[in-house]
Amino acid sequence: MTRVVILAEKPSQAKAYAEAFTIQEKTKTYIVLKPDDIFPNGATITWGVGHLVELKEPHDYKPEWKRWKLDQLPIVPDRFLEKVSKGKWEQFKEVKRLFQQADVLVNAADVDREGSNIFYSILRLTGVKGKPVRRLWINSLEKDEVRKGFKNLQNNEKDLRMFDEAKARQISDWMVGINASRLFTLHLQKKGFGSYLTIGRVQSPTVYLIYQRHKEIENFVSEPFYQIEGLFQSETGSYKGLAEVKEKDKGKVQALMDKHGLKEKEDHSGMVQRVDKKTKHQKSPKLHSLSTLQSVANRRWKYTPSQVLKTMQKLYEKKLVSYPRTDCNYITESEFSYVVNNLKSYQDTLNVSFTPISLKPRKRYVDSNKVQEHYAIIPTKSIPTEKKLNGLSREERNIYTEVLATTLAMFHSDYVYEETTIFTHVHDLPFKSTGRREVHQGWKELFPKPSKAKQDKDALLPNVQKGEEVGARLHIKESMTQPPKPYTEGQLINMMKTCGKLMDDEEDVEILKEVEGLGTEATRSSIIETIKAQKYIEVKKNNVYVTAKGITLCEAIEGTLLSSPSMTAKWESYLKKIGSGEGSKQTFIKQTSQFIEKLIQETPDSIQQVQIRNTGEKKKWNQPIAKCPACQTGSIMDRYKFYACSEYKNGCKVSFPKRLAGKSLSANMIKTLCEKKRTKVLKGFKGKKTFSTALTLDEDFKIKFDFKKKAEEKS
């Protein structure tokens, strides 16, 4: 009898897999499947809770590495080890027990390098060795796709290479984060900086991109410029036009008016010299990758990139859309085939009706050569009932409709418009007017109508004829040059993806193009959320601004590779080589170590030019929060990743976590616990479900949940 154990990344994923089979038994930590033609002896599905396993912290290797001191840098362990993530020990024990009993293991975590990392990191920590491992590789959680995937499990050769790639990335990011954050923070604190910096390989150059735009806006000097504008009156209506002159010197524009015998605000006679009409066709947009969907949703509904990814994940788990973390805009003929078969149902769901112009695949959308791990985001074969559609949140409905409309658009006709240019001469001075007229809506009828401002911009011109005489009134129009606008969150996603355009070095441009910029499709939104949480940027009315703390970071890292997208591009390029078997994890980690050594040598000099600003943070991070409830001598201090007593050198071991059951514990909560031994009922703790509870301090000065107080408050 072959015992098969399947590891899903999270409970919701495990549930979706189980729904494709018949369930025999369900527990808190695993699901047993009944035997069938795919698993003749049945199978057991268990799961991580995201990352069950994480890299050890510096102090797990050496207690002295807990303190932030320059003379302890660089912090580089001889071997990088893992530990069970806090609060996840029970699940890990069950996974370990099931792995030990298994004959065959199946990695069914997300189909990307982090999914490989999650599975093999857990497997390594369980100590289970020598068992065959298979890989589930699917793009949809629909029943048919899940069963097909389990029927055709892949070997783990590619999976192991992706694990090496992911582990190299994780270890190197750990080394840069731990060493660079301490290095820059401690040097800046010598100059009076009252906070701390967290520095990362991808997050720091991202902040720097926003800082560069801030500098462009700040240094921009607005200047006036002058043009001649004409308002023309024809028999069929009025229209505006501009002479082809644009000068900073108003006198030059006035001289041109004088040369042609023209005066402002006087009636003149004009002549239509030429009317050009061009019919233009616009093809429907390419299918969505995650980043194009994030950009559209931010522009249309002001959704943050993180909001879009979370919403897509929910729709994926509801089996309505394909795998969300894709960087591809193409599908294969296999997906195209099922989309064609469901065309009528998709139209009904979107409440539209049109005759497809063709049911044959076109290279603009269908190209197997351009599909690697994942294809573009499209609807699945599962057609939602009216009840299921009505049960979706507004965000889910908007995003699902956008995916559906974009998929249907590839079968629709082109959007056709007529572009008109009128050349009007007044005393031999030519004026140009442009506008457009919609001829055929085509695929655009599937999407929300553009704003009135956009429609006004594409103004309709009256129907005038060559040789027609028109009335003309002219004036010298004064305008001011405008600074660049701040990025929106949607534009920031695009900027991270295409930042190669900003690089001077051609080789760097090519590398950035190949690896698609900063971060990956799956991580960009979380990077933006991280730099928001670190207070390096703030978002106001969907515009992204760098803060005083962000400016300090950028001035500190200016001129180093930490500010440059080219470093992360070269890293990603080499990581891809590890994933394809052409590079070595050891070489990559060694190079990272050399980079850190160089940074330690160069930073003391480079930090001199940094101006220390008030970051606006209410408290210095190392100020006392409350008197220590244990020793009564020391004070509880913020130690960056946890709170602890200042008398720890003299033996006081009291410390409190920064996060407990998925909730951040603020300095005020810790102060209340130290002074009153209990808090009020707090919301937002996470277990299997979100829950509320009060916190208390027990006699050993450990934080405990107090559900009794919650019950008292209710009664």
TrEMBL record:
GO terms for cellular component: cytoplasmic replication fork. Keywords: DNA-binding, Isomerase, Magnesium, Metal-binding, Topoisomerase. InterPro entries: Topo_IA (IPR000380), Topo_IA_2 (IPR003601), Topo_IA_AS (IPR023406), Topo_IA_cen (IPR013497), Topo_IA_cen_sub1 (IPR013824), Topo_IA_cen_sub2 (IPR013825), Topo_IA_cen_sub3 (IPR013826), Topo_IA_core_domain (IPR023405). PROSITE patterns: TOPO_IA_1, TOPO_IA_2. One of its GO terms (biological process) is DNA repair. GO terms for molecular function: DNA binding; DNA topoisomerase type I (single strand cut, ATP-independent) activity; metal ion binding. It is an enzyme of class 5 (isomerase). Residues 266-288 are annotated as: Disordered. SUPFAM superfamilies: Prokaryotic type I DNA topoisomerase. Residues 277-286 have a biased composition (Basic residues). It comes from the Bacteria. Its EC number is 5.6.2.1. SMART domains: TOP1Ac, TOP1Bc, TOPRIM. Residues 159-600 form the Topo IA-type catalytic domain. It catalyses: ATP-independent breakage of single-stranded DNA, followed by passage and rejoining. Belongs to the type IA topoisomerase family. PANTHER family: DNA TOPOISOMERASE 3-ALPHA, PROKARYOTIC DNA TOPOISOMERASE. This is DNA topoisomerase. It comes from Halobacillus trueperi.
